[in-house]
User: Fold these one by one.
Assistant:
Number 1:
Amino acid sequence: MADKEEVKKILEDPARLDAELKKFFEKMDTEKKGYVTFDTVHHSLEDVMKKFGKEVHEEDHKPGELEAAEKICDPNKTGKVEFEGFKALVLASIKHHKEHGH
C-alpha cells in the first residue's frame, strides 16, 4: 500500500491517476487485447484498491454490488472491459469508500 501522502498526490493529479490505472490495466491485459473480462477485473480490484489505501475484501460486498460493478465497467454487456470501464469502476469504488468512511 502506498503511503497516504503519495496516494493523495496521485488522486489529486488526473494525469498521474490515469497513468497508475493504465499500469494496472496493462498488467491484467496479459494478452494485450485492449480489454479484459469482468472476472479478471473483479479478482484484481482488491490489489488496485490497496494501492490507493482502501481495503476491499470479498466478504465486504453487499448483495447487488457485484452486478452494479459489472454494469459500471461493461455497460453494454459485451463481456469485455476496456480501460475506460476499468477506470470508471476504480473511481466509483474510491468514491464509495470515501463516502462511507472506509
Number 2:
Amino acid sequence: MSAVPDNIVQFKVPKKPKVREKEAPPDQRKVCVVPIKAIRDASLTDASIRVLAILCSYTNRAGITWVSQNRLAADMGVTKQAISKQFVKLKAAGYIEVVKRGF
C-alpha cells in the first residue's frame, strides 16, 4: 500500500515565457500651441516658457492634460523638482491651473 492516493493529478511547472522588449514608438507630436502672451511675458524665465511649451505639447484640443511631472522631467532631462518650481511660477502667472482629482 502506497502513501500517495491514486486520484492525484501530476502537475508540472510551465517554462518561463519568452519576453521580447519592443522599441518605443517614435514621438508623433509635431507641433504644440503655446499662448503668445506667455512668449511676450517678461516675468517668465526661459525655463518657464520651455516647461509651458512641453506641457502644451501634451494637451488635447480643450487644453487639458494628465501628463505627470515625472514624464515632463524625463522629456526635458531635468529633475521633478525643477518642473515643480516652474509649475509654481506658471500657476502664479495664470498660465496653468492644476486640478487635483479632476472629477
Number 3:
Amino acid sequence: MIFFTSCDSFLEYKDKDKVIPSELEHYDELVYGEILTKSGGAICKNLAHMTDEVGSWVPDNLWDSDKDERLSYYPYYTWAKEPQITEKGDENIDPAWEHFYNRILMCNIVENDLSEFEEDLDGVKLRLLGEVQCIRAISYFYLVNMYGAPYENAEQAKTAMGVPVNKEISIDNKLYRRESLQAVYDLMEKDLLSALDNFKKGQVKNTIFRPNKDVASLFLSRIYLYMKRYDDVITICDNCLKETNKGIISLEEMKGYDEYNQPLLNKNSNSVFFTWMERNSFFSEYSSARFFASEELRGSYDPNDVRLNAFFNYYYKHPIKNTSYSKCYGFFYRIEEIYFNRAEAYIESGDYVSGMSDLNDVYTQRNTEGQALDANDVTEARRLFREEKSKEFCFEDIRWFDIRRWNVRVVHNFQEFNDKSVVTSFVLEEGSPNYILPLPLDIQRQNDVIEQPKREDSKVLTK
C-alpha cells in the first residue's frame, strides 16, 4: 500500500491558519513549498554506497570511544538481500518510495486544479503545468530506476517489472500493483514532452530552484538513452544546446573551486539547470571507520585533472560535491550531461567521431594540459566515454543507474572494525538480480499484491 501524507491538510479549510488555493499565485507557492522545497529528510544516499565510487576505511589505531559509522549502510555496500535490515537487526527503512510518490500525488492534484483556470494572460498556468509534469516524470524516473528492472529493449520492457502508477487526485487507501516497465517509460515521455511544450509557451522563471525546459530536455534525453532511442537523444540534446543560455564549467572556473568559499555546486554556477530536494553528505567526516570516495575512483584521475581538487577533500577522502556551503539542494542537474548523453548516443549509433567531439568539449575544460581524448573505433570510444562519465558525474546519482544498464560488475572490500587485516570482498555480478532494490519494509508488510523483486544473498568473492 502506498501511503501519501501531509497533502490534504494544505488543501482543506480547517481554521484561519489554513488556506484553500484559489488563484494561480497560490498554486505557485504551493508548488514551491509542497513539491520543490518541502523537507522530508535526506533520501537516495544508498545509491552511492552500491557503486564503485565508494570504498571502506578503518584506521590503524582505534580508541575505546571509536565507533563504526559504516554499519547503517553496510547492507547496501554489500548488496544484501534485504539491505534495510542492519547488522544489528534494526530497520533502516528506505524513504525514497514515500517521498517520490508524495510528490507525484501533489503533482496530480495541482495539475487537476490548474485545469479549472481558463485565463492565463501571463503564462503562469502553463509554467506551473510544466513544473508539475516535469517533477512527476523525474519522480517516476528515480522510482523505476531504483525499484524496477533495468530497461533492455522494447520487447523486454512490455513485461518487465516497473513500478505502480498513481493517477489519483486524493488520498485513497488502496493496494497498488506494478505497471510494466514500458508503461512507466511511456508515462515519463508523455509528461516531459508536455512539460517542454508548456515551458516554451509559459512564463519563464530564471532560477535554478524551479524546473524549466532545460531540465525537462535533460531527463527526456536520459529516458531516450535508456530506451536506446539514439536518434531521439541527439535531437533533444541538439535543441537544448541551441536554446539554453547555460554553458560548460570552464577550466579556469574549475581551478577556483574549494569546499568552503566556492564549491562546485553553487547557486551561481552557469552550468546548473535545476536543483531540488534534500540530501545530506554521504559520509561521516570524523568517524573512526567510514565510507569514503574509493581509491579506485580517485586514482582514475590524471594528476593534471582539476576535478581532483574540485570534487574531493583529501584530508578526509570524502567527496565535497554535496556540501552545506553550496547554497544548492542535494539533487542537481547540469549542462555537461547533455553533452555526455549526446556523445553516448553518437557512439552507440556508430558515429564515434562525433561522440568523441562532444566528450572532448567537456574533457578539455578539465585538464590543465589542454589534452584531448582520442579513439580509433567504437569500442575504444565507448571505453573512454564510460570512464569519463564515471569521473565527471561521481556522486551525482547517475553511476548506479549506469551500472544497471551497462551490466557493470562491482567489487567492494570491507575491513573488520577490530582487525583491519581481515578483509572480505563482496561482488555484484553482471546482470545481478540485486540491481533492483527491495520495496520499503512497510510497503512489503502492508501490500500483499505488489510483486517483490527476487533478490539473492550477498556474494563473497573467493580467492
Number 4:
Amino acid sequence: MSASELVAYVARALVDDPDGVSVEVHEEEGTQVIELHVAEDDMGKVIGRNGSVAKAMRTLLKVVATREGAPIALEIV
C-alpha cells in the first residue's frame, strides 16, 4: 500500500462523506507532498481535537517514509 493510498483509506474511514475524499501527490524540493481534500463538514474529523488525528496520520506517514527512504509530508486542504 502506497502512502497516498494509506492516507485515503484512513480518511475515508473517518469521515461521513467518503466520496468527498481525494488525494493528490506532488513533489516539492525532494519531498513527496500528499494533499488530502475532504468535505468542509468533515474537516474537524480529519484534524481531530487539538490536531490529534492529523498527528497520528503524520506518524503513520513517517513509518512509510522510513520504509521507502524518502521524506513524505501531509497537507490537509
